[in-house]
Amino acid sequence: MRISRSLTMLSLVLGAASLCSAATITYGVSQTVGPGSLTGFIETDGTIGAIGTSNILDFNLLLNDGTTTVNDHRSNSVFEVIGSDLSATTTQLLFNFSGSDFGLVIFERGGFVGANFWCAVTASAGGVCDTAPVAGEEVLQVTGPLFTSPLSGTQAIASATTPTPTRQSLPL
Fold first, then answer.
1. Is the pLDDT confidence value at 89 over 70?
2. Residue 47: which residues within 8 A CB-CB, separation 6 or more?
3. Strands 36-44 vs 49-50: parallel, antiparallel or unpaired
4. Taking the C-alpha atoms of 93, 120, 115 and 76 in order, what is their torsion angle to the nearest 10 degrees?
């Protein structure tokens, strides 16, 4: 009887844990950087709070400089998150452009070669994605000139496109 009751309690605990596990979240991206634009999606593993490279499962971004559009997606690009300035809520991806550490997020088609990329950097990492040592900024380059938008504080860089899961009651 005691083993049966212990197994019942264990199954309830495991069932509750599975209801609380994170589901993937897809965030829609629609940014303007200077005269350029960035649209598409970033999918995460559902982690809430500070996130890093390993939390990003997929992405597909269209980088546009007003003349040329480049498709930057998981299979043809590299991406990196450095620092703790990228965070996620159930409704938004946020980046702290005024972060005190060396923080950046970069998505670059074809590898880290200096063309066709979107980058968000903190004030202390200014100049990493371009040659100008500015405060926090977004940087976009599509085959030609760099476009920048200086930003400060924590800004939403994407918004959730999938419904957030609701908590369910456990049957008694």
1. yes
2. 22, 55, 88
3. unpaired
4. -20
pLDDT at 51 over 60: yes
Looking only at Cα atoms, what is the longest distance across the chain? 74
Tell me which amino acid residue 29 is.
V
Intra-chain end-to-end CA distance of the chain, in Å: 19
Closest CA to 56 of 36, 29, 31: 29
Q: What's the CA gap between 73 and 55, in Å, rounded?
A: 16
Nearest in space to 63 (alpha carbons), one of 103, 101, 17, 110: 110
Phi, psi of 3 (to 5 degrees): -65, -40
In the sheet that 146-150 helps form, which strands lie side by side, from edge to edge?
A: 77-82, 104-109, 117-121, 137-141, 146-150
Residue with tokens 């990329």: 117
Per DSSP, the three-state class of 3 is helix
Check residue 73 and give its pLDDT.
Answer: 83
